[in-house]
Amino acid sequence: MNMVNREPIHARWLSTDGAREELLQLSWENGGWTADVTVTGNDLQYVMRLDESGALRQFLLFRDAEDADLWLAYDGERWGEVNGTVRDDLRLCTTLALDASPCSRAFATIYLSVAGIDHAHLWVGMIDTERLEITPTLVEYMRTGEREWSVGGTPVEIDSNGLPLDVVPHSRRTV
User: How many Å from the N-terminal Cα to the C-terminal Cα in the chain?
Assistant: First the structure.
């Protein structure tokens, strides 16, 4: 990610079947990045707060209510809920992703790029957005080119900000 340019970034992805659209606004605030993503077709919104190194520190999921359906924070060692409950089931996870958002799986490439890591196996908490269940899943991230990654075997090309372009075969970037 271009850590010098802290101007807001906007991106849009359309699913290959045209049934889902993802709109992202990535902005710098309070010493870190905030990714605010709306997924139409699944009628949900999620917010990911990343620290200055690109590591995920907070995650909020909104489905059909004003209040968050899921609100998790990560201190670098453990995940917890807003009410203070520690999520021991996520102890291996360093990041989260949504089943309804193929692009969310690629956000870890930002952290890996900033850290200078070209190959890693990360535990990702895969969130089932209907049941709000989180399943720790080991995902291989491997840089295959200057702006290309393999994320769990799926090729992902990233832009100069570290955001995915097309996520084949799920969605294509339109902005």
Answer: 17
The pLDDT score that the predictor gives to residue 5 is: 64
Contacts of 175 (CB under 8 A, 6+ apart): 10, 11, 12
Tokens 């990654």 sit at which residue? 149
CA dist., res. 145 & res. 128, Å (int)? 31
Determine the distance from the C-alpha atom of residue 81 to the mean position of all C-alpha atoms in its chain, rounded to a whole number.
Answer: 18
CB atoms within 10 A of CB 149: 23
Q: Are strands 44-51 and 32-40 parallel, antiparallel or unpaired?
A: antiparallel
Query: Residue 73 and residue 41: Cα distance in Å, rounded?
Result: 27
Q: Which two tokens stand for residue 33?
A: 């990045």
Q: Are 109 and 116 in contact (CB under 8 A)?
A: no
- Looking up tokens 């702006």 gives 147
pLDDT along the chain (175 residues), means of 10: 72 92 93 93 91 92 86 94 94 92 82 92 95 95 95 90 84 88
CA 49 to the chain's CA centroid: 10
Return the pLDDT at 4.
55
pLDDT at 35: 93
- Is 0.85 topped by the overall pTM? yes
Q: β-strands 95-98, 119-128: how paired?
A: parallel
